[in-house]
Amino acid sequence: RPQLDRRTRSIVTVAVLAALRAHDELALHAPAALRNGVTREELAEVLLQVAGYAGAPAANSALAVARQALADAGLDEPGPATV
Length: 83
Known about the structure:
The chain is mostly helical. The protein contains 4 helices and no strands. Helix content is 71%, strand content 0%.
């Protein structure tokens, strides 16, 4: 479907998976989002946006899952982590 580019699809997917607390799937899609052009800062903002609509516990656990998934994928960045 051409209406949404891969970057936008990744943003939507990460938000929905975080809201659903689908941690296993989120762990797969967080690194993929970076490969699809989403920045770490944008990924963090998406997960913070989830807090307002799906609750802080869902967003906090999603942030932890995303951080670990990025570390496991070798996508760590030096300095303070946003995600």
